[in-house]
User: Fold this.
Amino acid sequence: RKEGESVEDYFGVPDSLVVIDSSGSMPNPDSGISIPVLGTTVITNAYLNNNAKVSVYNFSADNIVVGPSKNKEMLHKTLRTYQGGGTVFNTSTIEDIVRKQGNVDISIVSDMELSNLGDFLTYTSSLPNVHRVHLFYTNSGNIHSIADELKNKENIAILPLHSQEDIRSIVIGELKKYIK
Assistant:
């Protein structure tokens, strides 16, 4: 190796699965700036800019899934889709996506109004090919008990997503640890 040359990371950047809660308790992006939609857009773009494929799972009354894809417009449209229904999360949908994608990071953005969230995160993080799970919460309600429950899980990061400052300082900072 000569001075000025760089060596690429052998393993590269994993693909990404971005999961967004678009239930009635989440902000509607048609009514103003939605921090969850903005945050998931930043996450999606970070992976796409590193030549990874991204899948989006938008959950509420329906399960909307697109990808794996590098089509930024289609992915962004799915992130912006607001369903406004109940919070219904389907773990078999995650399994199917992970099976199709191979090595994957999962980013979940939700207000955490899921009754079995701790079990879900433990289950999701243990799926084959799941590299890391980023949980971005928009409501601090029950997050402390979940954080305590998952403190020994090294591949789960639990982070707030309340403001544009969170997007700048936490989302991008956390992702920089794992992607270029």
Q: What stands out?
A: Confidence is low (pLDDT under 50) at residues 1-10.
